[in-house]
Predict the 3D structure of the following.
Amino acid sequence: MNFFETFFDYIKETYTERLLYFPSNIRVSLLIILFCVVATLELYLYMAFRRLRQANEKLKFEKWQEYISNMLANLIIFDESDKTEDIVGHFYPKMKKLPLRNPIVNKLLISEMLVYHKNFTGKIEEVLSILYRKLGLDQKSKQKINNRNWEIKIEGIREASEMGISEIASEIIKYTDDENALLRMEAQAAYIKLSENDPFHFLDRAQERILDWHQVVLFEIITKNKKLSIPSFSKWLHSPNDTVVLLCLKLVEHFMQFDAAEEVERLLKHHNSRIVKKSVEIIGKLELSDAEEHMFEVYFDQPEEIKLEILNALGKISSGNYNDFLSSRIYSNHIRIKREALYAIKRDPEKGESRLRELYHQTTLENQALIGHVLDNRIKS
Protein backbone atom coordinates (compact mmCIF):
# COMPACT_ATOMS: atom_id res chain seq x y z
CA MET A 1 0.00 0.00 0.00
CA ASN A 2 2.90 2.32 0.85
CA PHE A 3 4.37 1.60 -2.58
CA PHE A 4 1.22 2.76 -4.40
CA GLU A 5 0.92 5.84 -2.19
CA THR A 6 4.53 6.72 -2.87
CA PHE A 7 4.07 6.11 -6.61
CA PHE A 8 0.94 8.28 -6.90
CA ASP A 9 2.55 11.02 -4.77
CA TYR A 10 5.51 11.00 -7.12
CA ILE A 11 3.25 11.28 -10.19
CA LYS A 12 1.24 14.06 -8.59
CA GLU A 13 4.38 15.96 -7.62
CA THR A 14 5.81 15.51 -11.13
CA TYR A 15 2.79 17.12 -12.82
CA THR A 16 1.97 19.77 -10.22
CA GLU A 17 5.33 21.01 -8.89
CA ARG A 18 8.26 19.76 -10.97
CA LEU A 19 6.76 19.92 -14.51
CA LEU A 20 7.84 23.51 -15.16
CA TYR A 21 11.48 22.71 -14.33
CA PHE A 22 11.84 20.03 -17.00
CA PRO A 23 13.18 20.84 -20.50
CA SER A 24 10.44 21.67 -23.02
CA ASN A 25 10.69 18.34 -24.87
CA ILE A 26 10.26 16.40 -21.61
CA ARG A 27 7.27 18.56 -20.62
CA VAL A 28 5.58 17.86 -23.97
CA SER A 29 6.23 14.13 -23.61
CA LEU A 30 4.80 14.04 -20.10
CA LEU A 31 1.67 15.91 -21.19
CA ILE A 32 1.18 13.52 -24.11
CA ILE A 33 1.53 10.55 -21.75
CA LEU A 34 -1.00 12.09 -19.38
CA PHE A 35 -3.44 12.68 -22.26
CA CYS A 36 -3.08 9.08 -23.50
CA VAL A 37 -3.65 7.64 -20.01
CA VAL A 38 -6.75 9.77 -19.44
CA ALA A 39 -8.11 8.97 -22.93
CA THR A 40 -7.55 5.23 -22.41
CA LEU A 41 -9.34 5.31 -19.06
CA GLU A 42 -12.26 7.21 -20.59
CA LEU A 43 -12.45 4.74 -23.47
CA TYR A 44 -12.59 1.75 -21.11
CA LEU A 45 -15.23 3.46 -19.00
CA TYR A 46 -17.29 4.23 -22.12
CA MET A 47 -17.02 0.63 -23.33
CA ALA A 48 -18.05 -0.72 -19.94
CA PHE A 49 -21.01 1.68 -19.74
CA ARG A 50 -22.08 0.82 -23.30
CA ARG A 51 -21.97 -2.92 -22.64
CA LEU A 52 -24.00 -2.51 -19.49
CA ARG A 53 -26.55 -0.44 -21.38
CA GLN A 54 -26.73 -2.98 -24.23
CA ALA A 55 -27.17 -5.82 -21.77
CA ASN A 56 -29.97 -3.88 -20.07
CA GLU A 57 -31.64 -3.11 -23.41
CA LYS A 58 -31.36 -6.77 -24.44
CA LEU A 59 -33.11 -7.87 -21.25
CA LYS A 60 -35.88 -5.32 -21.82
CA PHE A 61 -36.14 -6.32 -25.49
CA GLU A 62 -36.50 -10.01 -24.69
CA LYS A 63 -39.04 -9.28 -21.96
CA TRP A 64 -41.25 -7.08 -24.18
CA GLN A 65 -40.82 -9.30 -27.22
CA GLU A 66 -42.15 -12.31 -25.32
CA TYR A 67 -45.03 -10.29 -23.88
CA ILE A 68 -46.06 -8.75 -27.22
CA SER A 69 -45.64 -12.02 -29.14
CA ASN A 70 -47.84 -13.87 -26.64
CA MET A 71 -50.46 -11.12 -26.79
CA LEU A 72 -50.66 -11.17 -30.59
CA ALA A 73 -50.56 -14.96 -30.69
CA ASN A 74 -53.85 -14.94 -28.79
CA LEU A 75 -55.47 -13.39 -31.86
CA ILE A 76 -55.36 -16.77 -33.54
CA ILE A 77 -57.67 -18.38 -30.97
CA PHE A 78 -60.55 -16.20 -32.09
CA ASP A 79 -62.92 -17.74 -34.62
CA GLU A 80 -63.82 -16.14 -37.94
CA SER A 81 -67.41 -16.01 -36.73
CA ASP A 82 -66.50 -13.63 -33.88
CA LYS A 83 -67.36 -10.00 -34.47
CA THR A 84 -64.45 -7.75 -35.43
CA GLU A 85 -65.41 -5.06 -32.92
CA ASP A 86 -65.49 -7.65 -30.12
CA ILE A 87 -61.97 -8.83 -30.90
CA VAL A 88 -60.72 -5.24 -31.14
CA GLY A 89 -62.46 -4.42 -27.86
CA HIS A 90 -60.70 -7.34 -26.18
CA PHE A 91 -57.16 -6.43 -27.29
CA TYR A 92 -57.23 -2.63 -27.47
CA PRO A 93 -57.28 -1.95 -23.69
CA LYS A 94 -54.29 -4.28 -23.18
CA MET A 95 -52.30 -2.73 -25.99
CA LYS A 96 -53.22 0.77 -24.86
CA LYS A 97 -51.47 0.06 -21.54
CA LEU A 98 -48.19 -0.65 -23.31
CA PRO A 99 -45.56 2.11 -22.85
CA LEU A 100 -45.64 3.05 -26.55
CA ARG A 101 -43.39 6.06 -25.93
CA ASN A 102 -40.63 3.59 -25.17
CA PRO A 103 -38.70 3.18 -28.49
CA ILE A 104 -38.09 -0.52 -27.84
CA VAL A 105 -41.77 -1.29 -27.16
CA ASN A 106 -42.92 0.86 -30.08
CA LYS A 107 -40.56 -0.77 -32.54
CA LEU A 108 -41.36 -4.29 -31.32
CA LEU A 109 -45.12 -3.81 -31.45
CA ILE A 110 -45.03 -2.38 -34.98
CA SER A 111 -42.65 -5.10 -36.17
CA GLU A 112 -44.73 -7.94 -34.72
CA MET A 113 -48.01 -6.50 -36.02
CA LEU A 114 -46.53 -6.21 -39.51
CA VAL A 115 -45.38 -9.84 -39.42
CA TYR A 116 -48.82 -11.09 -38.34
CA HIS A 117 -50.59 -8.84 -40.84
CA LYS A 118 -48.41 -10.15 -43.66
CA ASN A 119 -48.86 -13.82 -42.79
CA PHE A 120 -52.56 -13.92 -41.96
CA THR A 121 -55.66 -13.00 -43.91
CA GLY A 122 -59.32 -12.51 -43.12
CA LYS A 123 -60.44 -11.46 -39.63
CA ILE A 124 -56.93 -11.31 -38.12
CA GLU A 125 -55.68 -9.03 -40.89
CA GLU A 126 -58.69 -6.73 -40.45
CA VAL A 127 -58.35 -6.58 -36.66
CA LEU A 128 -54.64 -5.73 -36.85
CA SER A 129 -55.33 -2.87 -39.26
CA ILE A 130 -57.96 -1.40 -36.93
CA LEU A 131 -55.73 -1.76 -33.85
CA TYR A 132 -52.84 -0.16 -35.73
CA ARG A 133 -54.91 2.95 -36.35
CA LYS A 134 -56.56 3.07 -32.89
CA LEU A 135 -53.14 2.95 -31.23
CA GLY A 136 -51.98 5.89 -33.37
CA LEU A 137 -49.27 3.84 -35.03
CA ASP A 138 -50.41 5.10 -38.45
CA GLN A 139 -49.34 8.58 -37.35
CA LYS A 140 -45.94 7.17 -36.37
CA SER A 141 -45.63 5.80 -39.91
CA LYS A 142 -46.59 9.21 -41.32
CA GLN A 143 -43.91 10.87 -39.20
CA LYS A 144 -41.34 8.42 -40.52
CA ILE A 145 -42.37 9.17 -44.12
CA ASN A 146 -41.71 12.87 -43.51
CA ASN A 147 -38.36 12.21 -41.82
CA ARG A 148 -35.22 13.64 -43.45
CA ASN A 149 -33.45 10.27 -43.42
CA TRP A 150 -34.35 8.29 -46.56
CA GLU A 151 -33.97 4.95 -44.77
CA ILE A 152 -36.56 5.98 -42.17
CA LYS A 153 -38.82 7.24 -44.99
CA ILE A 154 -38.67 3.76 -46.57
CA GLU A 155 -39.48 2.16 -43.21
CA GLY A 156 -42.57 4.36 -42.86
CA ILE A 157 -43.66 3.68 -46.46
CA ARG A 158 -43.38 -0.08 -45.95
CA GLU A 159 -45.44 0.10 -42.77
CA ALA A 160 -48.17 2.18 -44.44
CA SER A 161 -48.21 -0.13 -47.45
CA GLU A 162 -48.49 -3.32 -45.42
CA MET A 163 -51.19 -1.98 -43.09
CA GLY A 164 -53.18 -0.46 -45.98
CA ILE A 165 -53.21 3.14 -44.74
CA SER A 166 -54.68 4.60 -47.93
CA GLU A 167 -54.85 8.21 -46.71
CA ILE A 168 -51.04 8.32 -46.64
CA ALA A 169 -50.93 7.87 -50.44
CA SER A 170 -50.96 11.66 -50.82
CA GLU A 171 -47.79 11.83 -48.71
CA ILE A 172 -46.08 9.05 -50.66
CA ILE A 173 -46.72 10.40 -54.19
CA LYS A 174 -44.03 13.09 -53.80
CA TYR A 175 -41.37 10.38 -53.40
CA THR A 176 -42.40 8.35 -56.46
CA ASP A 177 -39.95 10.34 -58.57
CA ASP A 178 -37.24 10.84 -55.98
CA GLU A 179 -33.57 10.81 -56.99
CA ASN A 180 -32.89 7.95 -54.55
CA ALA A 181 -33.66 4.74 -56.48
CA LEU A 182 -34.57 2.65 -53.40
CA LEU A 183 -36.90 5.30 -52.00
CA ARG A 184 -38.44 5.81 -55.45
CA MET A 185 -39.13 2.10 -55.86
CA GLU A 186 -40.70 1.69 -52.42
CA ALA A 187 -42.87 4.77 -52.94
CA GLN A 188 -44.12 3.64 -56.35
CA ALA A 189 -44.89 0.12 -55.12
CA ALA A 190 -46.72 1.48 -52.07
CA TYR A 191 -48.65 4.07 -54.09
CA ILE A 192 -50.05 1.38 -56.38
CA LYS A 193 -51.38 -0.49 -53.33
CA LEU A 194 -52.69 2.52 -51.41
CA SER A 195 -54.13 4.92 -53.98
CA GLU A 196 -57.85 4.29 -54.31
CA ASN A 197 -58.65 6.63 -57.20
CA ASP A 198 -55.60 6.73 -59.48
CA PRO A 199 -52.96 4.13 -58.54
CA PHE A 200 -50.95 4.74 -61.74
CA HIS A 201 -50.74 8.50 -61.42
CA PHE A 202 -47.03 8.24 -60.64
CA LEU A 203 -46.42 7.21 -64.27
CA ASP A 204 -47.67 10.64 -65.41
CA ARG A 205 -44.92 12.42 -63.48
CA ALA A 206 -42.10 9.87 -63.73
CA GLN A 207 -38.90 11.48 -64.99
CA GLU A 208 -36.36 9.28 -63.21
CA ARG A 209 -35.56 5.86 -64.68
CA ILE A 210 -37.51 2.80 -63.54
CA LEU A 211 -34.65 0.33 -63.26
CA ASP A 212 -34.99 -3.20 -64.67
CA TRP A 213 -35.20 -4.91 -61.27
CA HIS A 214 -37.65 -2.23 -60.18
CA GLN A 215 -39.83 -2.98 -63.21
CA VAL A 216 -39.91 -6.64 -62.17
CA VAL A 217 -41.17 -5.65 -58.69
CA LEU A 218 -43.84 -3.30 -60.05
CA PHE A 219 -44.93 -5.85 -62.67
CA GLU A 220 -45.44 -8.49 -59.98
CA ILE A 221 -47.39 -6.10 -57.74
CA ILE A 222 -49.67 -4.98 -60.58
CA THR A 223 -50.34 -8.41 -62.04
CA LYS A 224 -50.97 -10.15 -58.70
CA ASN A 225 -53.23 -7.52 -57.14
CA LYS A 226 -56.73 -8.76 -57.99
CA LYS A 227 -58.37 -5.69 -56.44
CA LEU A 228 -56.52 -3.31 -58.76
CA SER A 229 -58.48 -1.62 -61.53
CA ILE A 230 -56.34 -2.09 -64.65
CA PRO A 231 -56.33 0.87 -67.08
CA SER A 232 -55.34 0.88 -70.74
CA PHE A 233 -51.57 1.24 -70.60
CA SER A 234 -51.50 2.65 -74.14
CA LYS A 235 -51.87 6.17 -72.67
CA TRP A 236 -48.31 5.97 -71.29
CA LEU A 237 -46.71 4.67 -74.48
CA HIS A 238 -46.24 8.36 -75.43
CA SER A 239 -44.13 8.99 -72.32
CA PRO A 240 -40.75 10.68 -72.88
CA ASN A 241 -39.38 8.33 -70.21
CA ASP A 242 -38.26 5.19 -72.07
CA THR A 243 -38.39 3.06 -68.92
CA VAL A 244 -42.06 3.96 -68.40
CA VAL A 245 -42.76 2.91 -71.99
CA LEU A 246 -40.96 -0.43 -71.46
CA LEU A 247 -42.89 -1.17 -68.28
CA CYS A 248 -46.21 -0.34 -69.95
CA LEU A 249 -45.36 -2.49 -72.98
CA LYS A 250 -44.82 -5.46 -70.65
CA LEU A 251 -48.19 -4.77 -69.04
CA VAL A 252 -49.90 -4.38 -72.44
CA GLU A 253 -48.50 -7.80 -73.36
CA HIS A 254 -49.50 -9.44 -70.07
CA PHE A 255 -53.07 -8.14 -70.09
CA MET A 256 -53.44 -8.70 -73.86
CA GLN A 257 -54.60 -5.12 -74.47
CA PHE A 258 -55.50 -5.12 -78.16
CA ASP A 259 -56.67 -1.51 -77.89
CA ALA A 260 -52.98 -0.53 -77.67
CA ALA A 261 -52.22 -2.02 -81.13
CA GLU A 262 -51.95 1.32 -82.91
CA GLU A 263 -49.58 2.74 -80.30
CA VAL A 264 -47.45 -0.41 -80.34
CA GLU A 265 -47.11 -0.15 -84.15
CA ARG A 266 -46.03 3.47 -83.80
CA LEU A 267 -43.21 2.40 -81.47
CA LEU A 268 -41.59 0.37 -84.27
CA LYS A 269 -39.88 3.63 -85.25
CA HIS A 270 -38.80 4.49 -81.71
CA HIS A 271 -35.20 5.58 -81.12
CA ASN A 272 -34.71 3.00 -78.33
CA SER A 273 -33.95 -0.46 -79.74
CA ARG A 274 -35.23 -2.19 -76.57
CA ILE A 275 -38.63 -0.56 -77.09
CA VAL A 276 -38.66 -1.54 -80.76
CA LYS A 277 -37.81 -5.15 -79.91
CA LYS A 278 -40.48 -5.35 -77.22
CA SER A 279 -43.05 -3.85 -79.60
CA VAL A 280 -42.26 -6.52 -82.19
CA GLU A 281 -42.61 -9.24 -79.53
CA ILE A 282 -46.07 -7.93 -78.64
CA ILE A 283 -47.13 -7.74 -82.28
CA GLY A 284 -46.16 -11.38 -82.69
CA LYS A 285 -47.81 -12.52 -79.47
CA LEU A 286 -51.06 -10.67 -80.19
CA GLU A 287 -50.83 -11.67 -83.89
CA LEU A 288 -51.52 -8.15 -85.10
CA SER A 289 -51.68 -8.74 -88.85
CA ASP A 290 -52.20 -5.01 -89.56
CA ALA A 291 -48.69 -4.38 -88.23
CA GLU A 292 -46.95 -6.66 -90.75
CA GLU A 293 -46.45 -3.84 -93.23
CA HIS A 294 -44.92 -1.59 -90.57
CA MET A 295 -42.49 -4.33 -89.51
CA PHE A 296 -41.46 -4.90 -93.13
CA GLU A 297 -40.83 -1.15 -93.58
CA VAL A 298 -38.42 -0.97 -90.63
CA TYR A 299 -36.81 -4.41 -91.05
CA PHE A 300 -33.76 -3.42 -93.11
CA ASP A 301 -32.77 -0.58 -90.75
CA GLN A 302 -32.67 -2.79 -87.65
CA PRO A 303 -29.84 -4.73 -85.95
CA GLU A 304 -29.81 -8.51 -86.21
CA GLU A 305 -31.60 -9.14 -82.89
CA ILE A 306 -34.62 -7.10 -83.96
CA LYS A 307 -34.60 -8.63 -87.46
CA LEU A 308 -34.83 -12.06 -85.85
CA GLU A 309 -37.75 -10.87 -83.71
CA ILE A 310 -39.55 -9.48 -86.77
CA LEU A 311 -39.16 -12.79 -88.63
CA ASN A 312 -40.46 -14.60 -85.55
CA ALA A 313 -43.47 -12.26 -85.37
CA LEU A 314 -44.26 -12.74 -89.08
CA GLY A 315 -44.20 -16.49 -88.49
CA LYS A 316 -46.63 -16.22 -85.56
CA ILE A 317 -49.04 -14.09 -87.59
CA SER A 318 -48.77 -16.44 -90.60
CA SER A 319 -51.02 -14.36 -92.84
CA GLY A 320 -49.17 -15.51 -95.98
CA ASN A 321 -48.74 -11.91 -97.18
CA TYR A 322 -44.98 -11.97 -96.66
CA ASN A 323 -44.10 -15.52 -97.71
CA ASP A 324 -41.94 -14.27 -100.58
CA PHE A 325 -40.06 -11.97 -98.21
CA LEU A 326 -39.48 -14.82 -95.77
CA SER A 327 -38.28 -17.06 -98.58
CA SER A 328 -35.81 -14.42 -99.74
CA ARG A 329 -34.23 -14.33 -96.26
CA ILE A 330 -32.74 -17.79 -96.70
CA TYR A 331 -30.12 -16.17 -98.94
CA SER A 332 -28.96 -13.92 -96.09
CA ASN A 333 -25.31 -14.04 -95.03
CA HIS A 334 -26.35 -14.70 -91.43
CA ILE A 335 -27.21 -18.25 -90.43
CA ARG A 336 -29.55 -17.12 -87.62
CA ILE A 337 -31.57 -15.03 -90.06
CA LYS A 338 -31.88 -18.01 -92.41
CA ARG A 339 -32.95 -20.33 -89.63
CA GLU A 340 -35.54 -17.92 -88.18
CA ALA A 341 -37.01 -17.26 -91.64
CA LEU A 342 -37.39 -21.00 -92.28
CA TYR A 343 -39.10 -21.56 -88.95
CA ALA A 344 -41.40 -18.58 -89.70
CA ILE A 345 -42.42 -20.24 -92.97
CA LYS A 346 -42.96 -23.58 -91.21
CA ARG A 347 -45.38 -21.99 -88.70
CA ASP A 348 -48.00 -21.56 -91.44
CA PRO A 349 -50.32 -24.45 -90.48
CA GLU A 350 -51.66 -24.96 -94.02
CA LYS A 351 -48.79 -24.46 -96.44
CA GLY A 352 -45.70 -24.06 -94.28
CA GLU A 353 -44.06 -27.47 -94.65
CA SER A 354 -45.02 -27.86 -98.31
CA ARG A 355 -43.51 -24.44 -99.00
CA LEU A 356 -40.25 -25.55 -97.36
CA ARG A 357 -40.13 -28.69 -99.49
CA GLU A 358 -40.52 -26.57 -102.61
CA LEU A 359 -37.66 -24.35 -101.47
CA TYR A 360 -35.57 -27.43 -100.77
CA HIS A 361 -35.41 -28.27 -104.47
CA GLN A 362 -34.66 -24.68 -105.50
CA THR A 363 -31.81 -23.68 -103.19
CA THR A 364 -28.16 -24.42 -102.35
CA LEU A 365 -26.83 -27.51 -100.58
CA GLU A 366 -26.16 -25.48 -97.45
CA ASN A 367 -29.75 -24.24 -97.37
CA GLN A 368 -31.05 -27.75 -98.10
CA ALA A 369 -29.27 -29.02 -94.99
CA LEU A 370 -30.81 -26.21 -92.95
CA ILE A 371 -34.30 -26.87 -94.36
CA GLY A 372 -33.92 -30.55 -93.49
CA HIS A 373 -33.02 -29.55 -89.96
CA VAL A 374 -36.12 -27.28 -89.71
CA LEU A 375 -38.44 -29.93 -91.14
CA ASP A 376 -37.30 -32.51 -88.59
CA ASN A 377 -40.13 -32.34 -86.01
CA ARG A 378 -37.98 -34.08 -83.44
CA ILE A 379 -35.93 -30.89 -83.18
CA LYS A 380 -37.59 -28.03 -81.31
CA SER A 381 -37.20 -24.53 -82.68
